User: What shape does this take?
Amino acid sequence: LGQDLKTLGMNLNSVESVYPNFGGPFAEMPCRPQDIDYHVPSEYLIN
Amino acid sequence: PLGPAPLQREHQFQLQMLEAAYYHLPHPSDSEKLRAYLPRNPYPLPHYYPQQTLIPHSDTVEFFQRLATESLFFVFYYMEGTKAQYLAAKALKKQSWRFHTKYMMWFQRHEEPKVINEEFEQGTYIYFDYEKWGQRKKEGFTFEYKYLE
Amino acid sequence: FDDPQGLLEKTEYLLREWVNIFHSPSASRDPTKAFSVFVHQMNVHGILKTDDLITRFFRLSTQMCVDLCYRALADQNSSTPVLVRTKCFHTLDAFVRLIALLVKHSGDASNNATKVNLLNKVLGIVAGVLLQDHEVHLTEFQQLPYHRIFIILFLELNTPEPVLEVINFQVLTAFCHTLHILRPSHAPAFAYAWLELVSHRVFIGRMLAITPQQKGWGMYAQLLIDLFKFLAPFLRNAELSKPVALFYKGTLRVLLVLLHDFPEFLCDYHYSFCDVIPPNCIQMRNLILSAFPRNMRLPDPFTPNLKVDMLQEINHAPRVLSNIASLIQPASFKKDLDNYLKARAPVTFLSELRGHLQVSHEPGLRYNIKLMNALVLYVGTQAIAHIRSKTLQPNMTTIAHSAHMDIFQNLAVDLDTEGRYLFLNAIANQLRYPNSHTHYFSCTLLYLFAEANSEAIQEQITRVLLERLIVNRPHPWGLLITFIELIKNPIYKFWNHEFVHCAPEIEKLFESVARSCM
Assistant: This one.
């Protein structure tokens, strides 16, 4: 009857907000740090 | 007690289009800037590999500070433009590495510099050479502060 | 139509030129210089001369980008999905950067209208190309190019730069308008990408957290209503094909983010959301109704002898951002309703009530659900005000023998099973966190149970509560305290009713729910 919402791959016990790492509606897990585009200092854009 | 309601024609069309779209699903990388290295590339791994364990709090500087220095350099150079690169840089700075914006390499004092003034400091440094992928020692190096991030 | 001679070739040349510039090392070192050189080229080719030419340039460019993607996607067998995407994004990201730079640098610094107008124009053009493509390609439609254009453009225009921060609310408004135009019921083959866009972490952050005074909440609520309206017919029949199940699961994830991070947003718009969510979507509705303000501490509903009417919070009305009174149509009915509430006459009003609510004789579609919901909430809020006007507090005594309760009792008796189910659902949808509505409607439901003149009504009240309790969590606080009161307080003689023992598994179910409640 309904889904076990704890199995949707979201860290619902997190004290902080979850939206900054939300992987999207079809992602089975939150974003990893390497998945999140970040406004790093332009000097870091080595490539 | 409502029971099923027959789908109206427009809903049948919508369902048909949704079902077709199901075969062209968005990919996580569609919402991310192009990755020069390490693009997301789903790969069938053996089931016994850790599939989804995201280490809790792995997006904190504290977590990155526990990584080996070489790992931080890997993250910094191979995950450019992401939060991981930003966290790796912060962790490196906490270990007294300094980023040289001209050579685009990380330097660490090997000993107290022989000369320090307003413009620069001079002495022996360890630096990480990302082309040769290894730490090197450099004596008599002048670190001009205008290149200090 | 009527593209000037040679415009297509010029556009193709300029787009190709820009893509090369965008990917050149010099551009990454000095993006502004590269851009100004290119704008000069656009000028030389007369592209920026008139609004009409700029519009044609963007439409043709969009078309070219889309065509390139279709060719690359068709070419899948010769390369991997990652390579196909890299090829597509190579051009798309350059095109998006051009749009972003033109938006940023158009008009002078003080004149933001030019920037916003250009953005709206471009978004409108891309949306137009998408809808036309959707009609042409039908089940072969590819969301990829449009998804990429919209999300990368959104991210580019939300980088923390002063010139963009100043127009951020207009940027958000432009994107919300575009997403509303492209809502799933209009472009169902774009639905998955649409949900990705609407629930992207940066979009959620900007709409619900960063934009001050909650100015983005109303627009975001509209997008969620578009989402529920699209899903409703498929969920209503509870026949979830895999594509619908994936989309529904995605919707649950988005709602979980909102429940966790923005519960006040769900509290404010719960009425509008429940108005479009099918009555059988119990868990999704519970998820919305379970939201409560983060600064509120909910007393444990299982606390023995919990005195709900002693809670401070039940004196405060919750924010309901829908204009309920205006939802009661036609105006003549609203007038008769107000007259009855005021004069508790004429009695004929009660006997005509069902006629206003019933819209067909087709089973499952007999009633105007929106009118039912609005009527229940309107009468309830009027009842609370009426009781308060006599310096009393709503409780099991003060809610009785009133024009308001006449209406509820009449509906309980006069409606058929389908109608009464919708009526009881409309009441149960108000059982949320401690507030004056939760308290009033909890008392009303229990009063209707106690005063029912037939066991069928009591059974149906029990069903409506039970079906909300036996689904997976979360469960709204008001639902729990109402059911606990029903099964614990002897005045309802709950356990004596025939329907409680009508079958062994039902009896076991009640006992297990009772145990978990005790």
Notes: The mean pLDDT of chain B is 93. Helices of chain B lie at 9-21, 61-65, 69-78, 83-94. DSSP finds four helices and five strands in chain B. The two ends of chain B are 68 Å apart (CA to CA).
